[in-house]
Specification:
Layout lengths: L7 E3 L4 E2 H10 L1 H8 L5 E4 L9 E3 L1 E2 L7 E2 L5 H9 L2 E7 L9 E10 L5 H17 L5 E4 L5 E10 L1 H18 L4 E2 L11 E4 L8 E3 L15 E2 L32 H8 L4 H5 L11 H4 L5
Parallel strand pairs: 11-12
Antiparallel strand pairs: 1-2, 3-4, 3-7, 5-6, 7-13, 8-10, 8-12, 9-10, 9-14
Length: 293
Amino acid sequence: MIPHPERILYPEIGLVRAELALYYHHVAAPLLEHLHDRPLTVRRWPEGLSGPGFYQRYRHQRGAAPRPIVIETVGDLMAWVGVGVIEFHSPLGRRQDHGRHDWAVMDLDPHPPAGWPELVRVAGVVLALLARCEIPAALKTSGADGLHIFLPIRPTDPHEVEAAMERVARVVTLAVPEQATVTRRVADRGPRVYLDFLQNGPKRTMATVYTARAVPEARVSWPIRAQELADGPEPFTVRTVMGRAVPPFPRGEPVDLTHALDAAGLPPLSELRRIPLTRAGSPGLTERGKGCR
């Protein structure tokens, strides 16, 4: 039984807690598979988005030490929804891997006036590069304005994962400097898509696949196929996906990420960092004779 099922969580559309609980029950099977053995960060709005919200990383029980939040059953999931959780954020590694990551991610964030068309073009370059490097990928919407590309990897130290994904990001930026950037300072990004490889660092979390997001339309982070990108930014929301079958979030065969990039001929990170990243005029990899074969 969900406490206060009539409580309005999304005031702009009148969506109540009972609807959010039904949504999470709808996606529970694949969501729980993805969350298995991952210590979570949750975002709670006990009074709905019109009230205060906060992050929580540990369970607190009287007389016991704080414990990481781990969700393994539908009951666990519903219990957290019942205390005001809207968003679930998960790390890129499992507890059993002791801090190593079994996913790598490229977070694509369009900087206005760049929008969905620019995002699709840059995502296509990222996916083409990964395909040529024989690295499988799974896509999902962020639930906000961006796109997440996940790569299944063998358990790897997060610093190594971050460095490998920076290599990918810089190669893409060199290939399409007018459309992609790795510039961290927001004011310097221009109308381009930011490739946030830093999300692979230690102790980072990502909005998990299938999570609802705390935006007025109650959007959700939803799996999407590459061939669906050109269809436009379909509004995946708590309400619009309820009548659909839940697509899986496919996890391909894990790869040794650094080895795959080395074997495919990507320049080392030290060399890539020496190349100026400008809006125009940056040498492309085809001109330099390097890149994935």
